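Lecture 7, part B: from sequences to assemblies.

Below are the input chains for today's worked example.
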Amino acid sequence: MSARVEVRRGFYRDSVTLLQASEAVAASPGVTAALVAMATSLNLELYERLGFEPAAIADATPNDLLVAVQGADDAAVERAIALLDARFAASAPTHGSDGFGASVPAHTTTSALRQGGTLSLISLPGAHAFVEAMDAVQAGKSVMLFSDNVPVEQEILLKDEAARHGVLVMGPDCGTAVVGGLGLGFANALQPGPVGIVAASGTGAQQVSCLLDAAGVGVTAVLGTGGRDLSAAVGGRSTLAAMELLDKHPGTELAVILSKPPDPAVAEKIRAAAAAMDTPSLVAFVGRGQRDLSAVTGDVLAALGVSDDAPTEWPAPYERAPRGGAIRGLFSGGTLCDEAMAIASDTLGMPIRSNTPLDKEWALGPDLRAPGHVMIDFGDDQLTQGRAHPMIDPSLRLERIAEEAVDPDCAVLLLDIVLGYGSHADPATPFAAAIRKAREQAAAAGRDLAVVVALIGSRGDPQHRDATAEALVAAGASVHLSNAAAARVAVGLIEGAVR
Amino acid sequence: MITLELDDVPVVVTAGVPLFSDALTQQAAEPISVDWAPPAGGASADLAAIAADLRAAEATVESARRLTTARAHWVDVVPAHEALGLTRGEFLHAGPPTTWATASGPLRGALIGAMIYEGLADSVEEAERLGASDEISLAPCHSRGAVGPMAGVVSASMPVSVLHDEVHGKRAYCTLNEGLGKVLRFGAYAPEVIERLRWMEHVLGPLLRWTLRKNGPVDIPSVLAQALQMGDEGHNRNRAATSLLLREITPALLETEASRADIKAVYRFISGNDHFFLNLSMPAGKAAADAARDIPGSRMVVAMARNGTDFGIQVSGTGDEWFTAPAPVVDGLYFPGFSAKDANPDLGDSTITETSGIGGFAMAAAPAIVRFVGGEAADALRNTLSMYEITVAEHPLYQVPVLGFRGTPSGIDATLVVRTGIVPVVNTGIAGREPGVGQVGAGLVTPPMSVFVDAVHALAQRVR
Amino acid sequence: MLAASQVASYVTVPHAGTPAAIVALLAPNAVRLPIGVCIADDALPARGATVALGAGVLATSDRAWRPVRWWDPRPHVRGDELVAHGELLVDIVRAEPAHSFGMPLSDAFAVARRLGDGDADAALGVIGSGPGLTPAGDDVVAGAFAVLALLGRLDDSFRDAVLTCARTRTTALSAALVAAAGRGEMIPQAARLLTSMAAGDDERVATAATALFAVGSTSGHDLAAGMAGALAALSSASTESTPLSGRRT
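Predicted structure of the full complex, as structure tokens:
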């Protein structure tokens, strides 16, 4: 036999709750006697009649709660007490609104989490993001931190605190994530499947997951880590945590870790951690001289034994002849821009001028103009100050398309269009119109302007991927689900003439 | 070990651009949006520095734990010279530190009355001369473990209640409530005021002392918890608590070896003064708040007090430092014949009630007073609900029936005040500007945001 | 259109040569049935409307609905871990008051045990027993079926026998849910309970059970009873403590 008696001070639940709790405890397996009641004199008499030791509660007053449980063994008593605590926790009023009148909106992440939140998504200006993110982490909830301009010391502190609380910090500067089928930030509608993705690059993760979707392969989760996670300073804290999470997740059959080439020591650490996983994994560091995102997707499909024969492009509605001149790439995704620049400069052996150049020598001036091949990442911080991201607001790119239309140097326009939640609701309409007009203007000047579009989207995306592609093709573009393929087509049109 | 559940659809809390919460709604999820605004006073760097102080969150929670677990009992009534070691020239007052030169009308009036009561001066003129000299000394009640309503003046001969919290080992002190009308705490010093003080010294104090000896200590938080379920909020409405108190101590009072006339006078005095209990809920709050003091890093407010000139706060993590700003004028309803021009700026230590989770914070429990302070029942609910935004605990004992017996919002986090732009709701009486006029109305006061911004800055300085 | 409530519409989809399938259109606050489609809209097709289904869209004459996100109604659990922690659920279910269940717990356990033994007649006796759109007997069978399917203990001929019985003896919606359970698919509250159990986390199991119990009037309890019964029957440790009334034929 085993017994436990507790006097809980300053504890109050209504009598019905106490009665029900007392009954539930008494009915718990192995319990022979139980009393959960305020320590009133009547209840104290009952307590003694049940055979509990009066000395144990000598100092109890009627304002105190008496918990007395007797059972066959310690385990039975422990179980009963745990059951009681769970019941009390469930009966604790959390955000009372039994009354009348308006409720008060949550003003902080802490307050909103009290209303039942399980994950925090923060897109505040960088100077304010850390405080809200700390709220979530210290409440034991994972965070997707979309905000950029968060100081690296704050990022490290946040991630260390996250480790202490057993939660994941995705970001800062994390553009996409999919958790429980729900897209966070800029995210595609992805089907459930066997692949878990950990990515330091938002558009990189969107490209791979959308190509997998085209091949009929779904994901368990897409976990972003933020672009700086694999730097020497941050040391892959979130990437390693996300890998551990996927490793423990029974539904994940293949973990894909995706990043630009990281700090070498960190790269080593990630590879070692991947090798130690029970779940098969694939580490892909994409960038110049590495495999591109589409090739990595091929590797994933090969590892799963899935053959990829789904069509992934819509050819242009007319024959396009190779031509001399320059490629002008106008991008909304940073990783997509990098990938296209790497393919173009490696194939053409020529510099690609950019606001985010592969080589410092190739940097564009503030007017973003130069003769020759130019590729611009319109999602770069410098160009998004005080305005919406180009995935939402296409106006800068549309203006630039109009300017390129009248530039005699421009022979090929290369664009990315990223679909999914968070992105522009109908990019086909403005881009098709801009493409049609640009081609007409160029034609009027005696030029055949080729337009190549990388369309990053899934079959389930709200913008209707295929209808979007068809509208762009009707305007005169070729459309490719693979950004690398689009870049190669654009380069091929020029290279054919160079040869 | 990471606990993020990958197979569950998360319930997402969003802070920032509405685009992303709209994107969640489009996915048939139901996000909870944070109604975020930039922090007051441009304090974002200070807030980030404090958030980076990893002991701060736990320290604040610990402060709130101490605040809400304190159980101060009314154990004794003794003269202030005995309880607080006050000498004849020493006077305590409400609020942050002040001087005769800067003291407001009601505070000066109360000091004049106290000097006459102590026999230090025979006339108002003499008292004023003495007040301006260095023969008397002033100190805040808060600096001596005491609190006082309105002017809050305590002098050596006045009987004070002693409250003792065994849980955290703190003692707190407060004078006995004088009732309404012409009273010292509102700055009145007419002969009848002085006479009443003497009666309190010679009859009320000693009888209550004997009563407590007979009855045993009175559990003040327990009385408050019941009173909150009977329409009190513990600051501006104390009718239920005073009645409950009287019910508890009357048998012992009747058994004291005093004259029938004195017993009757004491009973009548307490029963005729709805606010008698205020001078017990205040020191109960003070004992609780003092238990929460001096925890390094703690962001919790441990005192809010006004001296009629300045409004000041103290914070657990910054010791005895006061953060002050000019006291605001109370926004409320005036008694017939008075208006805002008769009002003195906000006055008194009674904001210790809000500091400890009752008063304005428990307004939803006291719909009966919302008309008195100008408002509707829904305002009372909203006031209490909005205080959960700036507090870190819910009081286990003080509960609001209409909110499903949810605990009152307790333990003000100074950083939350600055982050949300929501200042504590304070229910209070309004003192007349001129000495001797007394109470002229009641209402709500809006504490100055700058004191919280300053406190946050001081907290940040300590971790930089 | 088969039926409609405030938060869900049920659409019959005829297939040539096979029995009709059911698709539920679910508003954001509806219980997410495994045969459901989430739509981000409170306005659902009206009862009795004729709808067209195809190309990823469900349309009536004046408007269209599109699913907005995907989820996997089959929880990812390891069978051995589930069975190892089966007692957790059995204890919780037994601690619930008797009136919470639409079918007495001892009966539910007996049915689940017989289903576990591959006895299709067990389903015959209870499917369609109870009031409501998903009768209690069906919920018990669905609970047991879901667990057996996840553990790979359902052979095809046995499953088909039970489903054939369900098609004629209960509401079309309920039959579709039993069929989904036969594929290991279930509502998220049930899925969460099983993943928490597989993790062996008492606290999460208790929370998940509370959430499941809140589904329907007795549905959540009956589903849990079916799951618990199947697990009790599978875990050898609990053999002697399984309540057996055995009065049904």
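Note for the exam: The interface with chain C takes residues 5, 7-9, 25-30 of chain B (CB under 8 Å). Keep this in mind when comparing with the next example.
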